[in-house]
Fold:
Amino acid sequence: MFDFTLNGTHVLARAGTLVLPHGVVRTPAFMPVGTHGTVRGLHPAEVERAGAQIVLGNTYHLHLRPGEEVVRALGGLHRFSTWPGPMLTDSGGFQVFSLEGLRTVEEEGVEFQSHIDGGLRTITPESSMEIQWALGADIAMAFDHVVPAQSDYAHAEEGMERTLRWLERCRQRHTELTQTSPRTQTLWPIIQGGTHADLRRRSLEGTLERGPWSGIAVGGLSVGEPKPVMHRVLEELAPVLPAPVPRYLMGVGFPDDLLEGIARGVDLFDCVAATRNGRHGSAWTSQGKVNIRSAGLKSSDQPLDPACDCETCVRFSRGYLRHLFMAEEMLGLRLVSIHNIRFLIRLGEQARETILNGTFDRWSRDWLERYHRRGDL
Ligand SMILES: [Zn+2]
Structure:
């Protein structure tokens, strides 16, 4: 359980197989986000048919509503949501640090105001472990101190150091919780340190000292810094991250980010953009970005993306999808979400194939060039 095998590499890009209690994840892979225990708008069977191998659950949201005890009483997040495959829960760190209602950050934990009822709540490294254990995902994430994009050195250092101290507490509590059934959940740490190379390096060293780990996440990127800065941080981490461990780049998942990340050795990605953009009628396609409300699509009998094999593209026309959006029919939001999710999952599948046959470098460069050249339709 929690085994990772590298099946092949091409330059820095990696193709691997991650074995988890609820199934196998072939990497590189995009993980759709199911904030409230559902990938918004989609039936689990649709998520499965889109090729998703693993989905995310959101600790912060599920803790506030319905509460982890309700989920536990109803059989855990797998049974509750009826998603049969692997799952990962985030730690709640990113949400509480992004909140307007954030009150205080102390060594003990974070106090914040619930966005639902305004009540004051606290999450600590220990309680994050307890919530995630009750939810029961295959992978739990460490509770980390997230600092804003481009934080100065002192703030980034403070967040990074606290993340390490909290990691120690997470590890201890998680070990206690999993003692009775250690094979059902694993804990992954998160590397912080902002955009500062030596802080990232120290974060990694401190994390590895507290290991061993079955996976390592890189957090605090794609939070507003320029893309070349994110690429530099990944390039600096790639050679020092332990090769036999899967690498998860948190909260990153636009199509170009996926390929740029894979090219720098990342194995797993997640992002809400696929479904959020889908609900707004914005689709990624092999021909560039499509705004489904564009007047030019009114009479188009073309599929959304002629190169896509998703349930939306094999069945419906652009003209029909535009009509659904103009008429505010909920099917429209769902169909574009299905397409966007499949688009990212397929990108991972294609990357894996080209890594294994040694053509990834060229394929991804050509793909990115086309993607940037075409622009918006
Ligand atoms: Zn499609």
In short: The mean pLDDT is 95. The CA atoms of residues 116 and 360 lie 45 Å apart. The longest strand covers residues 3-10.
